[in-house]
Amino acid sequence: MNLHQIHSILRRKSDSKSAIMSARYFKTGKGEYGEGDQFLGISVPEVRKFAKEFRELALPETLKLLKSPYNEERLLALFIMANQYKTGDEKSQARIFQIFLKNRKFVNNWNLVDSSAHLIVGEHLYKKDRKILQQLARSKSLWDRRIAIISTMAFIRKNDYKSTLKISTILLNDEQDLIHKACGWMLREVGKRNLSVLEVFLNGNCRKMPRTMLRYSLERMPLTKRKYYMNKK
């Protein structure tokens, strides 16, 4: 399957009404976080099916797909990259990781970050130096910062929470609600696995945390504890 054929298949699956709804949902208007993003109107389950069908697409072709103006094509490229990373050898994994980092400006909406960062960046850094995540967390780019915190999901799944807490601390004063939600989500995941670790973090930071970040982090806690921390805020 070549790239021209893939483009043709996706265009046939496009739906203009769904595309308009997606454009609104992902805030593509002037001054919004997804300004200028374009959609074909293809559902995520459909894109996942195509990712399995095109799983052997060569990396150079996948990179071209990642540079598409259409969100679903970029999402498809990231699904393919994540699948190839999972099944690849050490050399191919390193290559996919480097391609992701060098081309992350195309990973520029939250659905793209959330579908790939932990599966490529997080998995690659699990037993390696993670300083790049701190650099990303301090970036001016909203999407770099979201990549930094979402990548830590890979560590959380291995009961390693240090990076999540460190990146969340760096992002405590972030101005973007999308970052507040992402940090709160990752902290909630920490709490689901080790409540005491989350509570230590909250005891030291709950008064400084943006309200959205705090609320998201508390969602799986008992009601009494949720009220306790929200009142401390």
Question: What can you tell me about this protein's structure?
Answer:
By secondary structure, the chain is an all-alpha fold. Helices cover 68% and strands 0% of the residues. It is built from 16 helices and no strands. It has helices at 3-13, 16-25, 44-53, 59-66, 71-87, 90-102, 110-114, 117-125, 131-137, 142-151, 153-156, 162-170, 177-193, 195-205, 211-217, 223-232. It is globular, with a radius of gyration of 19 Å. 40% of the residues are buried. The mean pLDDT is 97.
| Averaged pLDDT | 97
Termini separation (Å)? 55 Å
Low-pLDDT residue spans: none
**Beta-strand residue percentage:** under 5%
Which structural class is indicated by helix and strand composition? mainly alpha
DSSP summary: helix tally: 16
Radius of gyration: 19 Å
| N-to-C order of helices and strands | HHHHHHHHHHHHHHHH
Q: How much helicity do the residues have?
A: 55-70%
Query: Major sheet: size, sense and barrel closure?
Result: none
Overall geometric form: globular
The overall strand count is 0
